[in-house]
Amino acid sequence: xxxxxxxxxxxxxxxxxxxxxxxxxxxxxxxxxxxxxxxxxxxxxxxxxxxxxxxxxxxxxxxxxxxxxxxxxxxxxxxxxxxxxxxxxxxxxxxxxxxxxxxxxxxxxxxxxxxxxxxxxxxxxxxxxxxxxxxxxxxxxxxxxxxxxxxxxxxxxxxxxxxxxxxxxxxxxxxxxxxxxxxxxxxxxxxxxxxxxxxxxxxxxxxxxxxxxxxxxxxxxxxxxxxxxxxxxxxxxxxxxxxxxxxxxxxxxxxxxxxxxxxxxxxxxxxxxxxxxxxxxxxxxxxxxxxxxxxxxxxxxxxxxxxxxxxxxxxxxxxxxxxxxxxxxxxxxxxxxxxxxxxxxxxxxxxxxxxxxxxxxxxxxxxxxxxxxxxxxxxxxxxxxxxxxxxxxxxxxxxxxxxxxxxxxxxxxxxxxxxxxxxxxxxxxxxxxxxxxxxxxxxxxxxxxxxxxxxxxxxxxxxxxxxxxxxxxxxxxxxxxxxxxxxxxxxxxxxxxxxxxxxxxxxxxxxxxxxxxxxxxxxxxxxxxxxxxxxxxxxxxxxxxxxxxxxxxxxxxxxxxxxxxxxxxxxxxxxxxxxxxxxxxxxxxxxxxxxxxxxxxxxxxxxxxxxxxxxxxxxxxxxxxxxxxxxxxxxxxxxxxxxxxxxxxxxxxxxxxxxxxxxxxxxxxxxxxxxxxxxxxxxxxxxxxxxxxxxxxxxxxxxxxxxxxxxxxxxxxxxxxxxxxxxxxxxxxxxxxxxxxxxxxxxxxxxxxxxxxxxxxxxxxxxxxxxxxxxxxxxxxxxxxxxxxxxxxxxxxxxxxxxxxxxxxxxxxxxxxxxxxxxxxxxxxxxxxxxxxxxxxxxxxxxxxxxxxxxxxxxxxxxxxxxxxxxxxxxxxxxxxxxxxxxxxxxxxxxxxxxxxxxxxxxxxxxxxxxxxxxxxxxxxxxxxxxxxxxxxxxxxxxxxxxxxxxxxxxxxxxxxxxxxxxxxxxxxxxxxxxxxxxxxxxxxxxxxxxxxxxxxxxxxxxxxxxxxxxxxxxxxxxxxxxxxxxxxxxxxxxxxxxxxxxxxxxxxxxxxxxxxxxxxxxxxxxxxxxxxxxxxxxxxxxxxxxxxxxxxxxxxxxxxxxxxxxxxxxxxxxxxxxxxxxxxxxxxxxxxxxxxxxxxxxxxxxxxxxxxxxxxxxxxxxxxxxxxxxxxxxxxxxxxxxxxxxxxxxxxxxxxxxxxxxxxxxxxxxxxxxxxxxxxxxxxxxxxxxxxxx
Length: 1239
Hints:
Layout: H1 35-38, H2 66-73, H3 75-79, H4 82-92, H5 94-107, H6 114-164, H7 172-191, H8 193-214, H9 220-226, H10 234-257, H11 259-264, H12 268-318, H13 329-370, E1 380-381, E2 386-390, E3 398-402, E4 406-415, E5 425-433, E6 436-441, H14 448-456, E7 463-468, E8 473-476, H15 487-492, H16 499-508, H17 512-517, H18 535-548, E9 553-557, H19 565-576, E10 588-593, E11 604-608, E12 614-618, H20 620-623, H21 627-635, H22 664-669, H23 674-684, H24 686-714, H25 718-723, H26 725-772, H27 775-780, H28 783-825, H29 827-874, H30 876-881, H31 885-935, H32 940-983, E13 1004-1012, E14 1021-1028, E15 1033-1038, H33 1044-1051, E16 1056-1064, E17 1067-1068, H34 1074-1079, E18 1082-1084, E19 1093-1094, H35 1095-1101, H36 1107-1116, H37 1120-1125, E20 1132-1133, H38 1140-1152, E21 1158-1162, H39 1170-1183, E22 1188-1192, H40 1196-1199, E23 1204-1209, E24 1212-1217, H41 1219-1223, H42 1229-1235
């Protein structure tokens, strides 16, 4: 059962969390500091100007710092913990006075008033210790309240700012890091604010009380305390580490987005090496932070071992020997209790201040992100654009006449993507007539998409003005943006549903038959980046969205690429014919294209040359006489020398959401067991664990033994104390130094040896499992969950797990030692310890089961937040164009509020557990003091040692519970990693490498092959038998969805072979390692892969290292001039480097530099013009004259150049043969497809 039964499919897909009740206060998502969350959003006008457009949160001329803004926004939550924290502080300092009173009571002879004084002492102990339990619980719950609202507030601010960012701000990877790591650090800092100031106050009060007992001897401790505060270079170290994490996540996201292309090209091993190198660089930078952490931990624990030694030694040295005793038990254990409080406070100071400073650093990063430039619409309303016409009148005045017949007015517009870059569009001036189709045509890389982005308002012109009709806008990107929702919801979006309009849009885009073929119809989830629908279906879904919107301005960026001719012709007739849906409606449509075949449908044509200049414009009748010359001079000529290129339509580096939620972690990670510990110890190494445990044991001995020595020493006579002073100094300083060295060694061993090795290994396991997973894994696994493995899970195992591990180990050993001491000094207390420990054990076990589930719920509930952020960033231009920002913001509020529920209950469960521990300590203290009061047969030193250890025992129990619980919870991340590596099906069924010269001939044989994308889906190709001779050049064609790409991908091992055999050169490829098979092919995928690495590094990923060879290849495809001007082979290959078509040229360049006997091409030139297609096809034939070439294509001009054409329909071969011969046969299927326009 879902915890969110009211969630619709339109929202993010959540893991099944189980029923959790709502909390009793707001989570912060709709806080008063969040104007977006409080605003009542209505669908704004798509031209985002004037009334109805939300401009983002208003900022003052002198912006308030984010920390202050957060504080004053939630001032009640921030101030609420102060009073209970003060009460807790007062009750804490009552403990040393109770110790002194108890020892005084035991040391004095029994009198008539002893019973009353004893009863009062027992009551005082009950009041103080039970008071500590309830007051601290109230304080912690108040701190949880503040933490929860701040977490939600910051998350909402980051998400809302992401929707408002200007596209030139590159923060995709930063926003995901801030939403996870930075928010987590800020919330931890908020949790520690009141503990930090209380620790400073506690140190001051403690030293004052120590001075009252020891005199000037207390002052020597100030020097030791004064050396604790250092933070030199901490911010720089943290900043560098965070930058390395962002860089790794940035590349990881790019890899996950391009995983299909990576697998097709056999680049997974090289990509794995690249990401592991990034991880190693990140770990190297983290070592400086770990060193600072080690220094802070060891220095803070110095007070625990050295403060009592210094204070008591100086006191003994200057004490008046005539008093009869140097140090009494009352004074010794009262002071030891005070030293314990002061030492704990000093340790808390360093850890709390460090947490706060780390949180402030993260808050500063978030504030910088929130202060970045937000998107503002650069366009003007067409209503404000007017012309002056001189008309004869009495006054000779001019009259302003509004342009009612113009939808878009471009005046002297130049545009470029970077401030220092070259203008892509130069001095363009034209008017787009209202109503009808306007075609912007030009060669590849001429700036068509740039001009469309200017009209959309997504890109501000560097000069000139853009005026647009105040109307609704629909936008179809060159690469269609498909959200991870159903087909129906992708089309309808935030609009009301109208059945008739919806059916018309489906029919116009030829989607009705596709939907009928799907088992779940239009409720079919589109999956990761639309992976569960075909490329052609993605195009048509995006187009149907535009038609359904009834927008009065429709912008289409070459969005019909990749469709078969029949489908394309159907769509053109349905929407652009005289009675088409767009032509007959009061709609202005602008289509950017490099193909001349759309020109006859246009009412107006604007031609752009390769330099980005408008060279001709007019109606089709005016342009028609010049078509032939223009096709040669303009449409079919490509200049790729410009250094500024149109970025990819999906410019974000983020992953969209996905169809199916992966809840393996919930099913298994929620139920921790010793098998996880065993697996983790196996990862860190048993010998390393034993060494670490031995060092921790030495530390505990070094802390406990001086206390026992002190109890025995205070019982000695004055002369014996004087005689044994040297041994007193030796024990305290010698054993204390041993403890300090042991602690330092343990921290170094853990943080610089164990943690570093596990950090690299866990990343290796996650990365290897991900890259080796079958393709159906990526369509069935939530992208937020996948990204969480590389971000949150690794963050937990990098830092939270080692801290929990060392804390749990130290406190557990300390607790055992203190229990032994208390039991020896008070035998009955041992029985009480045993009885109460059993009760606490049962409670803790119940709590652990709950906390594990809550922790996994918290992690999994965070995934929809991350997924929605990634999805909205990926389609930001489309979201803005359709006016869906309100809808996405509301979805963001909903998933954020849902994610708060498990977080809040997890924190509250920890508060409840701490309350039970405090009650345990209070009961134990009451038992010990009651026994001492009733029996009065113990010495003052023994009672003081027992009561002092009860104070420390309470802290140790809390520490054990807190760190052990943290360890159990953080081990949930380890369990997730273990389960992920064990349960994710690998695509590699064999690791056998083929011979070095394989394939030597390039002969391919399919024998009765049935192919499917998943065992849960019907076959895509059934019982196919095909022989492809060595050196053949085969074109594969057929209607969209006929199985063309599936056939090619079967050779690459990307689809599952249900039955049959595929062999190459008489070798069954199922018996070979898939990466090895792929690496032997030359592959040109449909979607070109872009990684943020240099051209040189990019080529090395594919085994090409000869620089001269790379340069010659780039010159052949005409890209070298662009790359040379951008920095040569050191230029970073990003989405801003090349246009969509140039990306395909770059992929073609690398492919032609690779050697292979089999070449596989899946519509590799769909985004380039005809001249370049012809050039590249000839380049492939010339480069691989003896190789077998398989090419998926819809273009007849391309098909006739091949030796053989293979026609597929519904997953079956319907015809094959020489395409030229088949065209001469009217009855052939290929000829019929050609005649019917289905190619």
